Amino acid sequence: MSQSAKRLDKEITKRVKLDYLLHLPEAYESEPEKKWPLILFLHGSGERGSDVELVKVHGIPKLADQDPQFPFIAISPQCPEDSFWAMEEDALMALLEEVEDTYRVDPKRIYLTGLSMGGYGAWQLAAMYPDKWAAVAPICGGMEPKYAEQIKDIPIWAFHGAKDDVVPLSESEQIVNALEEIGGNVKFTVYPDANHDSWTETYANKELYTWLLSHSLS
């Protein structure tokens, strides 16, 4: 089943609008009783704007575009120009709610990932809604260590390039170290030769998806 472009336009306390790509696995229609795991993907700063096709440049939507059998429902929203994911939390959660209401999503297997600006967004959204995610995979992002307590029970696998000259490795290290100090459920992969693009290798790694699917909410 091909990836389709859609728009959320919803009134909550304010009106929120987000364009997004939706991927349904190829077997979605042929297995009408099955509930599917879902991945929410947050792109980096370079894909902001009003052309949702830009979101396919990297990461989960790129993979889903190339592989119709990608075995997750995937939501890939586009952040508006001059905004950041931390400013779009209401819209992201409204989008997630709409997709859950419309499609056969397994509520115990909802996963969150993002790269660069989206890596920061994934950390932040995990901290704001810690009970929502079965597992989180932030890539070359970061968060202040003071939020560690809020996310210590979420399975997290963070990724970063050691030679990143856009988002320093220390951005991931400080929150990972804080989580390790309080017994958080965290893994950390550092690519010794990678610069800012630590996402291509990460999203190409089948172990990531096996790891995600090994976690579900109780």
Q: What descriptors fit this protein?
A:
single chain, 218 residues, eight-stranded mixed beta sheet, 30% helix, globular, hydrolase activity, AB_hydrolase_fold, Dienelactn_hydro
Please describe what this structure looks like.
- Pfam families: DLH.
- Keywords: Signal.
- This is Phospholipase.
- InterPro entries: AB_hydrolase_fold, Dienelactn_hydro, Plant_Biomass_Hydrol_Est.
- GO terms for molecular function: hydrolase activity.
- There is one protein chain.
- With about 220 residues, this protein is of the alpha/beta class.
- It has a domain at about 5-140 and about 205-215: Alpha/Beta hydrolase fold, catalytic domain (Rossmann fold, 3-Layer(aba) Sandwich).
- Helices cover about 30% and strands about 25% of the residues.
- It has 7 helices and 8 strands.
- The chain has helices at about 60-65, 90-100, 115-130, 150, 170-180, 200-205, 205-215; strands spanning about 5-10, 15-25, 35-40, 75, 105-115, 135-140, 155-160, 185-190.
- Strands 1-2-4-3-5-6-7-8 form an 8-stranded mixed beta sheet, with helices on both faces.
- The chain starts with a strand and ends in a 5-residue tail after the last helix.
- The relative contact order is 0.14.
Let me know the average pLDDT: 93
- Please give the alpha-carbon distance between the first and last residues: 30 Å
Proportion of strand residues: 25-35%
In the CATH hierarchy, the architecture of the domain at 4-140 and 206-213 is 3-Layer(aba) Sandwich
The poorly predicted ranges are: none
Task: Give the helices and strands as they follow along the chain.
Answer: EEEHEHEHEHEHEHH
Here the CATH topology of the domain at 4-140 and 206-213 equals Rossmann fold
Shape: globular
Q: Oligomerization state of this entry?
A: single chain
Radius of gyration: 16 Å
Number of strands: 8
Number of helices: 7
| CATH homologous superfamily classification of the domain at 4-140 and 206-213 | Alpha/Beta hydrolase fold, catalytic domain
Task: Briefly note the structural class of the backbone.
Answer: alpha/beta
- What proportion of the residues is helical, as a percent range? 25-40%
Strand order of the largest sheet: 1-2-4-3-5-6-7-8
CATH class division of the domain at 4-140 and 206-213: Alpha Beta
Biggest β-sheet description? 8 strands, mixed
Pfam families: DLH
Protein name: Phospholipase
GO molecular function: hydrolase activity
InterPro entries: AB_hydrolase_fold, Dienelactn_hydro, Plant_Biomass_Hydrol_Est
